[in-house]
Amino acid sequence: MKLSTRAVLAACAALLPYASATIFYAGVAESGGEFGAWSATSEVGTGLPGRFGTDYAFISTSGVDAMADKHKINLYRVAFLLERMCPLSYGLGARFNETHFEHFKESIDYITKKKGAYAILDPHNYMRYNNPSSQPFSGSVIGNASDLTAATTAQFGAFWGELAKRFADNEKVIFGLMNEPHDMPSSLNLANLQAAIDGIRKTGAKNLILAPGNAWSGGHYWTKGGAEANSNWIHKLVDPLKNTAIDIHEYLDEDFSGSHTECTQDPAKNLAGVTAWLKEHKLKAFITEFGGSNTTACVKMLNDLLDYMANNEEYIGWTGWAAGPFWGSYSPCCTDQRQLGSFEPGSKAADGGPSLYDTIWVPVLSKKIPSKLQWSGISSVNGGELTSR
Ligand SMILES: *[C@@H]1O[C@H](CO)[C@@H](O)[C@H](O)[C@H]1NC(C)=O
Ligand SMILES: *[C@@H]1O[C@H](CO)[C@@H](O)[C@H](O)[C@H]1NC(C)=O
Ligand SMILES: *[C@@H]1O[C@H](CO)[C@@H](O)[C@H](O)[C@H]1NC(C)=O
Q1: Residue-range domain boundaries for the chain
Q2: Which residue, of 90, 137, 287, 312, has the greatest Cβ tally within 10 A?
Q3: SUPFAM superfamilies, alphabetically (predicted)?
């Protein structure tokens, strides 16, 4: 049968229903700056300030090199701990530990200036400050007026104003306001995020901001939880520059925690609600944490999640969880059975076998890195010029 040109074009269009969707930023989360502060007995102050390079580190340059040179990623999300940037004796705010800041800046400069990629600054604090010894649950919720030991919303705004001022001249930096706020009123999450946006914009910084949802930023839960649902709150944020995107996390195991080996949660089905909300409010989103083990079901669902983001224009960026300098054979996800290593290039599983870098990053995530990404210009909800490397 001979098809007319028109019929062929129509058939192609049907196969590509979302041809306009674009991922501008793709890469990996670098976890390590928040390491070394956990205490089995919840002892306050454990690992503070910590020894840089021994208890914690932000990146390994060899790992970043491999990700950049081999896989051509243009985005790294770099975790740090608020209690190290702002020691407890200073309190949360504009006064930093300059030694700690310099180490952090060195890593961000390596990624953005040496490798030319974009970097998300990630205070890995669950909207809490003053006791990371039993993260993610310990510490006073920022802005909790009933807790005299809690840092205030204004202090959080001052902290972000200072951090933004220091990176405002680097257009490759993205301000990730907070990792996974949870178990707090959504009104307070909103107030804290607004204070941070106000603090950032007051400095003149134009960089992209990422605003996280409450309830661990779970995409599947975005429209759930009744009056507390993120879908009732987060679109109320006001950014005078309209350069704020939504920060979503989505794991694929039974309870969305990322702690189980098997993947059972269909991402397309579970993200339908938050995607509709993004569309309704004309917002863009990043999924800055997702991952899975090396089972057949996880490989399929991770592919489904990456395809879902590629096919829906609301999603413009992602970082897989996680690479980092100190994982060793430990795993950033799915550790209920055994330690499978991490996305860090060169890591190995505890049994000496291939790590998640070999079994998941290389064959699954790296295959979905678009050949063209944004490599210059300000980080933006609108993306920028797409070029290949
Ligand atoms: C600041 O950071 C450095 C390097 O980690 C550390 O040696 C020092 O004790 C810290 N200062 C405070 C006040 O935490
Ligand atoms: C705020 O602080 C009070 C007093 O310590 C505590 O009972 C309450 O649970 C805290 N609220 C949150 C959201 O943590
Ligand atoms: C996952 O990786 C580990 C470590 O290399 C290996 O022992 C295991 O057999 C792998 N599982 C699957 C389903 O491939």
Answers
A1: 20-388
A2: 287
A3: (Trans)glycosidases
